[in-house]
């Protein structure tokens, strides 16, 4: 019995298996034909497997297959049904793309989709082809697809370092994890180079360029090793799952958990990919955390788009993403790590000059000092590995001259007051007058004007009140210590006061958001019908976010505009985007990677698994679409709206059920009263008769 207990799978393994089987029943299976370079035979292997499935009686169609004019590939396409491509007009040219609607209409068992990492033409439903594949899988269609190993996000930097060629088209590693099967298509680098020379991969002109830039023998060996290692890691994962499910004894150490801190800098993208790569090697879960401090508020506003892209990329790579508001980056990072049982923190090596580290210790050093038992991995960043970004015209920062002029005025006032009280006070006591104006400057003008006030205060105090007068010379060297202490205390006071102001501003922003949610929830709780509820949604969202809003509810087989802000009339295109968001239970439209050309951001209204409609929002400020805080607030608004709609619908259904029950009871009483002999011996009827 003891042996049976030991061999029994753990509850976690059984739950994992149940979830896996449930996911497989809900969506199609993905099979990836993985190679290390163009020309290894991925498409050929995919078509051979497809023909085998077709001979077995499976319904197979070629949704999008790129043969590149190779005769042997075209021969394998014969006999397979091919779905016509969608023709997307771009700059006067028609570009062929995967027609997902045609695939849905045909609804095969297996769809062949070549070149998973392809970027769709502008105007397509999705930006990337892998998003089209995800939609096909969600509809229950099995997909066979091809991709090279260098296109996976976590390996992008490694491939760039090896080959010197930047990989621009990438796919998230989560697709590799999601795949039901990965088939490695492999040939030796010598054979591949021979195929290249024979013109079986590219035309002669392209082949010569490819051999010179990318298809070098050393590059191919390295890429081949990456593909073999990635496939071996997948086999190792399957082996671990098999051992865990069948309770095969072995060493089972505590699970590793990694965390990477990002700041929106150009280095954050590499840190995220490095952490994903480490997580794969350790078979560990990982977190990506962005910590927003009051002092970094202006920087965050200027850099919010890059931060948003970094967090979205981390989500696509499989990370758990979190945004934290805190006054200290190091304290917040360690607190999050401890709360989530993180075992390793990944940070970037400081790039600031050493002399600045003496004045302000780097965040990395603070994290290492506070980390305790948590390991800290410091990643070196090579600037040459960063891809050049297009220059963005940013407005020059306007120097607040009025604040500095006010500093001069405060110092002049302090000097005048000191002259007036000079007969009654010792020079050392006059320092308090200058210290007072430093505090006033910090409260009213900010940190930099306050530091200027302190500096000018020291100069005026020395020039006018320390003998010898009207000169910067000092007869008593003890006053030098007074000057240094006065300036240091002034800087500390101005810094503390400035931080207090920034924290107060952050609290004010949080309070505004909290009040917005409170007023909406209060108004929604007081509504008893849908019309009043929708009016409350339009009013609160419009005032809180300075947005124009449309609420779309299902009516039969389509969505209709149930309520909209004044002057809002969604076009047929917006209705189509809202319909896509409704049917796929995903956000779409402006600010997303799905149908991003739309004017509105469309959020599905779902509560407890029930899909109730779509919330369309058009924000006045374009940057708000990339703000993490705004998106969280929008998600909260959508959730509250969905719950309120569900409550009103349930209340209406309960009233209708009650009316139906009362009607049935009334008919029964009437039937009893009118039935022959119903009054005899019937106390209820007797009472009615009386």
List keywords for this structure.
690 residues, Rossmann fold, 4 domains, six-stranded parallel beta sheet, five-stranded parallel beta sheet, 24 helices, 18 strands, 15% strand
Q: What does it look like?
A:
Helices cover 54% and strands 15% of the residues. The chain has 690 residues and is α/β, with parallel strands linked by helices. The chain has 4 domains: 6-245, 3-Layer(aba) Sandwich (Rossmann fold), CATH 3.40.50; 257-385, HUPs (Rossmann fold, 3-Layer(aba) Sandwich), CATH 3.40.50; 401-501, no CATH class; 527-650, GAF domain (Beta-Lactamase, 2-Layer Sandwich). The protein starts with a helix and ends with a helix.
Distance from N terminus to C terminus (CA atoms, Å) equals 76 Å
CATH superfamily of the largest domain: P-loop containing nucleotide triphosphate hydrolases
**Mean pLDDT, nearest integer?**
79
Globular, elongated, flat, extended or rod-shaped: what is the shape?
Answer: globular
- This entry's quaternary arrangement is single chain
Strand content: 5-15%
Low-confidence stretches: 1-6, 249-254, 384-399, 683-690
CATH architecture of the largest domain: 3-Layer(aba) Sandwich
Main structural class: alpha/beta
Strand order of the largest sheet: 3-2-6-7-1-8
What's the total count of β strands?
A: 18
Question: What count of structural domains?
Answer: 4
Alpha-carbon Rg, integer: 34 Å
User: What is the helix tally?
Assistant: 24
Question: Any idea of the CATH topology of the largest domain?
Answer: Rossmann fold
Helix fraction by DSSP (H/I, runs of at least 4): 40-55%
